[in-house]
Design goal:
This protein has strands spanning 4-11, 27-28, 31-35, 38-45, 52-62, 67-77, 81-88, 98-107. It is 0% helix and 58% strand. Strands 1, 2, 3, 4, 5, 6, 7 and 8 form an eight-stranded mixed beta sheet that branches. A hairpin with a 2-residue loop joins β3 (31-35) and β4.
Length: 108
């Protein structure tokens, strides 16, 4: 399979003490699918000069209307820096099935 892209958005829900959320200034690059079972996403983290350790929650909306969820735990996010993350599919879905992805930074 040739490389393809999947629409990727950052979700930053309000948090107690932080109404704009943990990642309101973050940006996610369009996910690059490297095959049926692997894709890469680049996340640019920006939070008013503060770095953090957080979990990254990826909510994958599949073409059949269902959802799959992938979490990468304990990621060090440095303010105004990009990080790259590889997400693998599993036996119940592959990247050909994914329509779009939402990324949420969940503070630890």
């Amino acid at each position: 399979m040739a490389q393809a892209s999947v629409l990727t958005k950052v979700d930053s829900p309000p948090l107690p003490g932080d109404p704009s959320g943990a990642c309101s200034k973050c940006r996610a690059s369009t996910m690059t699918v490297n095959g049926q079972n692997e894709a890469d996403i680049e996340l640019y983290y920006q939070d008013d000069g503060q770095s953090t350790t957080a979990d990254l929650q990826f909510d994958l909306h599949l073409k059949d209307g269902s959802w799959q969820y992938v979490t990468i735990y304990n990621q060090q996010l440095v303010d105004q820096t990009s990080t790259s993350h590889t997400i693998e599919g599993d036996s119940s879905w592959n990247w050909d099935d994914v329509e779009e992805v939402y990324v949420e930074v969940v503070p630890g």
